[in-house]
Amino acid sequence: xxxxxxxxxxxxxxxxxxxxxxxxxxxxxxxxxxxxxxxxxxxxxxxxxxxxxxxxxxxxxxxxxxxxxxxxxxxxxxxxxxxxxxxxxxxxxxxxxxxxxxxxxxxxxxxxxxxxxxxxxxxxxxxxxxxxxxxxxxxxxxxxxxxxxxxxxxxxxxxxxxx
Length: 163
Hints:
alpha+beta
């Protein structure tokens, strides 16, 4: 892992790849590595516990298996470590019953470790925005929904997004 104070650009060593089942162990902790060091709200709402790691594994596995999803990872090639992620999902303007607004946030049941009091409002706003704004006009076939993205804290500010 890079030192947190090192802001040397590393874009030449970062490669963006589709997430693979072999990446699931690293993906279990990428949200915590990306958000917890600088965001106490996310740290308390989505704590890094064994139960949450299992939930993230299920989420990322679902993203990998779902043909409507495009989970991408940023890999630091010298260490082969996953240092960033981007989850995109194609959402239909006129969805089938099983396609819920909110993407994976509403697709997978929350655990007892989710702080629903802190997180429910965020997800309800997301669902409302999708249903009323994105699908509300009924025009077009669909759109790409950015479900979540992040870069491990030690790699933030080092041009990972340029890869």
